[in-house]
Amino acid sequence: MQKDLFDFEEKNLNKNLSSSKKKVTWLSHTALEELHRCPRCFWLSYKEGIKLPEGIQSRLANRFDTILKRYFDSYREKGVLPPLIEGKIKAKLQSPFKESYYFKLNEEYGFFGKVDECFVDDEGNHIPVDFKTASSDPREKQILLAYQNQIDEYLFLMEENGKKVADFGYLIYFFPQMSIELTNGFPMIVHIVKIERKVKDIKKRIDAAIKILQGPIPKSSPDCVYCNWFLRVKKYY
To answer: DSSP assignment of 70-116, as one string?
Structure first.
């Protein structure tokens, strides 16, 4: 849900956060997942500014994300959990809420992330939350590796910023329930998934990404749909 926001942040961080004359390259969860899909596409994106084509995309998920954040904020002011999740989580909303976290590795590279929400338990542990929307029932799906990585990265960033963290985070899915009774609101299934922390040393993933960027253009992933498409059509140009 945060891809557009991450893209926007990556374009502006170099202007706003670099304390030296040398431009800082800021990596994110989106960047690391792009590297996992295809090293060449990742390299081209950062070294040459050649982004992957997106085509026509719906902005509904981003709009819904904004609505959810405002909804949670309204209950943060009251000091209680929103009714949608009340009784399902033993913690309180972080207040004030800190959305963005940054970790500068050196004068050239940094890593950042933006959490959708954060809980704090009775022991003061911070628990990152990512909102997910789904077009099919999320209760029947397996958790994607990218989602696991995302929670691990959030915990890493919070820890590096001096926060006491739990050993897990939450995914909160919002799924529209089939109904014709819409007069009193849109019925929604709220599905909460607890993601246990698996990897603490995220620096290894970041270091691997930096190594790629500091070297020559890498080979494509054999499964990259973009590179395979280009190889098939380039003979016509």
So the answer is: HHHHHHHTTTS--TTTTTT-SSEE-SS---EEEEE-SSSEEEEEE-S
**Which tokens hold the place of 59?**
């902005």
A 10 A CB-CB count for 140 gives 8
Give 3-236's CATH code, choosing from 3.90.320, 1.10.10, 3.30.70, 3.30.9. 3.90.320
- Residue spans of the domains in the chain: they are 3-236
Alpha carbon 161 to its chain's center = 17
What is the rounded CA–CA span in Å between residue 164 and residue 127? 9
How far is the CA of 203 from the CAs of 27, 104, 105, 109, 111, in angstroms? 12, 11, 9, 12, 9
- pTM here is 0.86
Q: What are 28-68's pLDDT values in tens digits?
A: 999 999 999 999 999 999 999 999 988 776 677 788 889 99
Query: Which residues are registered as beta bridge partners of 176?
Result: 188
DSSP one-letter string for 108-141? SEEEEEE-SEEEE-TT--EEEEEEEE-SS-GGGS
Task: Write the single-letter amino acid at 71.
Answer: Y
Q: Which of 207, 232, 230 is nearest to 109 (CA)?
A: 207
Cβ pair 168, 196 in contact under 8 A? yes
